[in-house]
Amino acid sequence: MNWVKGFRCLCKITKAAEFGVTDCQGNALGKFRLPVSVEGNFLWSKQSAMAVSRQFGSSSRNENEVDPHLSRDFLVQLWISDKKMKNSRRKKKRMIKYGSHGGQSKLQYPRLFSGSSVTEDNILNEGKPSLKQPPPTQSVSGLLKPESPEEALVAPLLARSNLLITRDIEWANLVLGFEQENRYAIVDVCYPQSPAGFIREQSNVLARQLLRLRRPFVASITDATGNELFRVRRPFWWITSSIYAEIDGKEVGVVHRRWHLWRRVYDLYLGNKQFAVVENPGFWNWTFTLKDIDGQVLAEIDRDWRGFGFEIFTDAGQYVIRFGSSDPTSKTGLAEAIQELDVIRPLTLSERAVAVALAISLDNDYFSRHGGW
């Protein structure tokens, strides 16, 4: 047994100096400390170490004899500490599975999202995983170089060629007709296993039930770690809707819907200057193309078909924002293998924030029709 081994190891310490301590092989361990290794490290206090060194320093009895000064309580404590160390090691092996990924150890936890993973450095003190922000797929040192602190704030999310925005299923709305706050996940198509950001609506519960699609709300756009990057604000509307993009409390752009009997027309502004227009023919056309004053393509928003069940019974829509790139050298990482939209010029980071606001407005204006009884 382990405590017997520890007892024999202690009994062999007979060649120590008066105030020195040695191990089982005769190596000096220290003057005032006595480490005893029985499948772990067990350290005594300064006083107990001196007492043991004095007891065994002048001892000349046989190695197999039992020291009468060695109490039974000490052996019990030694055995208990050894059992605790073994149990803790078994629990760690059972809870943590180590894998190899690029030379770095990776801890596998219950996935918050499909395929997501976290590294050992991101584990909190409570043992909860934190998601890791995927790297941008477009360089921010060239045409997308931030021109203001506001653009530098949104660059980790918007410096990408393509974004996939997916709305969560609202079960209370589906089963009971209770209108819930909208939730979206933003995914970079180059890194589909880890979300690049999230969108969360904040609105009054009574306003959601009474006003439905015309309700006012504020939606926070965050990165994968939960840091807020910018907001979109949508006030109450009666005939035509508007949605504002705000970065760090500063309004940077707005999207105004223009009334038409069947066409879906939107005007996009950066400050007081219009930079794009959307003229969708309506009906079953789900492609919304952003064009400049000359009719050249700047970006594109597609509403994807998710399946018959999703489209008929839920509001869980999915939107693809294609920003494209006119500079092939700006591609980084996995984006080099993806065919991008051909655009006349890349949108700035502030203009891309307005385009995300447009996608949220489209979802609320035309594709959220299943609320109520």
From TrEMBL:
Family, per entry = Belongs to the phospholipid scramblase family.
Q: Which organism is it from?
A: Quillaja saponaria
One GO term in the molecular function aspect is: phospholipid scramblase activity
Among the Pfam families in the record, one is Scramblase
The ranges of region (Disordered) come to 123-145
The protein's name: Phospholipid scramblase
Q: Which SUPFAM superfamilies match?
A: Tubby C-terminal domain-like
Cellular component, GO, one term: plasma membrane
